[in-house]
Specification:
single chain; 452 residues; mainly alpha; two-stranded antiparallel ribbon; 71% helix
Length: 452
């Protein structure tokens, strides 16, 4: 049981809520903006079209985040979930976009979202495939898969002109990491809860003093921009719909694992109906995002790390994060300011957040019954998940379909754990003969002493 500063239904004071919501926004904004940037660059879209994609992604993510946290009827898990454009769809989006253009990406995303919407109806049955051993593996793999991302951030990233692994980048990341650790460990109340955003702000000021911040994006960003639904139009190529449907199936597995991790972080029991509401919101939210001219959305695992680290599980805090993301879409200049945060600052904070997810997974695994069968499930699943995480080129010679399905360590770890849990037979606890031989004399000696 995690000790929480604020429970799921708590409403912190206004200033505290704003600060904590901003913390979640900072953790998510880079990922939300990165997807349209990567897709736009791959399709060689002009700058104004990429900006439109980014604004749409922020608006869509903000609205769906609010629905996921607050809930509307059967839609929304009503837990602190940040929704954002997902890298799980990047491969499919680029392949569809290169052949048919952006309208096909959005049309295929809208049509294929039915896979997730229908899939949500089966979550009570799917939940039974996730006993403690499988859940622990999935949560651990989420953290392990995210750590390399934080390491790349800490090293300075792979952007043109970045000096990967320079002493300056590593020094700033280490400074932010130590600052966050000190604030979490020795801070009290709001200081401890907002350790990530405070640590990042201090690191940002250090980078400003060192002249590392490029404000040209802020100067060029428009102050206000209205939403542009169906800006690109839509087309529905069959191949594109199939590719996106596969990506949705992969995302369903990852999102289920993320929800499990969130349940552990917020002390919430994840029932089938609860998962169904969350998955339904992912599907409906992605359909809505497509209408808003945005790539599909999914639950962000990195924000589970924020919850684990800070002990703030209030869904009302994260609902405000959704409102902030929506405003960032209406006022692109706000998002442009956040984008100026250097990657080493994100890396120092991210390493702490993602490692906390690993810690949560290890705690779940520690409560699993220590049998040979469970040991095999956990070892093989984590090993296979790490294989594609640390060596993604492992799949480079395989068909595109295989790479699409098994390109994520989270998905591989989850699928291997689920399959092994179904295939390996349950066996009674084995008794060691040596233990029996040792126990007999001990019992015999005890009885002799009692008789004497």
């Amino acid at each position: 049981m995690n000790h929480l500063l604020f429970q799921v239904e708590d409403r912190p004071p206004l200033f505290t809520t704003v600060l904590l919501a901003a913390q979640h926004m900072l953790a998510a904004l880079g990922g939300i903006i990165a997807v349209p940037l990567v897709v736009g660059a791959a399709l060689k879209l002009p700058a104004d079209q990429i900006i439109t994609l980014i604004n749409a992604a922020l608006l869509g993510s903000g609205i769906v985040t609010m629905v996921q946290c607050k809930g509307i009827g059967p839609v929304g898990i009503r837990l602190p979930c940040v929704m954002g454009t997902s890298f799980a769809f990047v491969g499919a989006a680029i392949s569809v976009g290169l052949e048919h253009g952006v309208p096909a990406i959005l049309g295929s995303s809208l049509a294929a979202s039915v896979v997730m919407i229908v899939g949500s109806c089966f979550m009570p049955k799917i939940r039974k495939l996730f006993p403690h051993a499988v859940t622990g593996v999935v949560v651990t793999m989420i953290g392990l898969s995210l750590v390399p991302v934080a390491v790349d951030w800490a090293a300075g990233g792979h952007a043109p002109g970045a000096v990967y692994g320079s002493p300056l980048n590593l020094g700033i990341a280490a400074f932010v990491l130590v600052t966050v650790i000190m604030l979490v460990q020795f801070g009290k109340g709001i200081v401890s809860a907002a350790a990530v955003v405070i640590g990042m702000f201090i690191g940002y000021l250090v980078c400003v003093s060192l002249g590392m911040i490029d404000f040209s994006q802020v100067q060029n960003a428009p102050v206000f921009a209205l939403p542009q639904p169906l800006h690109y139009g839509m087309t529905f190529p069959v191949a594109g719909i199939v590719a996106m449907a596969i990506a949705y199936l992969v995302t369903m597995v990852e999102t289920t694992g993320t929800f499990m991790a969130l349940g552990a972080a917020t002390n919430t029991k994840m029932r089938g109906k609860t998962l169904a509401r969350g998955i339904l919101c992912d599907g409906v939210g992605s359909a809505f995002a497509a209408l808003m001219s945005s790539p599909p959305v999914s639950t962000f695992a990195q924000n589970v790390g924020v919850v684990s680290l800070t002990g703030v599980a209030s869904r009302h805090v994260v609902a405000l994060t959704g409102a902030m993301l929506f405003l960032a879409g209406l006022f692109p200049i706000l998002g442009a300011v956040v984008v100026t945060i250097p990657q080493p600052v994100l890396g120092g904070a991210g390493l702490m957040m993602f490692a906390m997810i690993i810690s949560a997974g290890v705690q779940l695994l520690s409560h699993v019954e220590h049998t040979k069968r469970n040991g095999v499930i956990m070892a093989v699943a984590i090993g296979c998940g790490l294989a594609v995480t640390v060596r993604p080129e492992l799949l480079s010679k395989l068909p595109a379909f295989v790479k699409e399905v098994f390109g994520s360590g989270i998905t591989v770890g989850a699928l291997v754990a689920v399959v092994l849990n179904l295939v390996l037979p349950e066996r009674p606890l084995e008794v060691n003969d040596d233990d029996e031989e040792e126990e007999v004399p001990q019992a015999f000696l005890t009885s002799e002493r009692e008789a004497a």
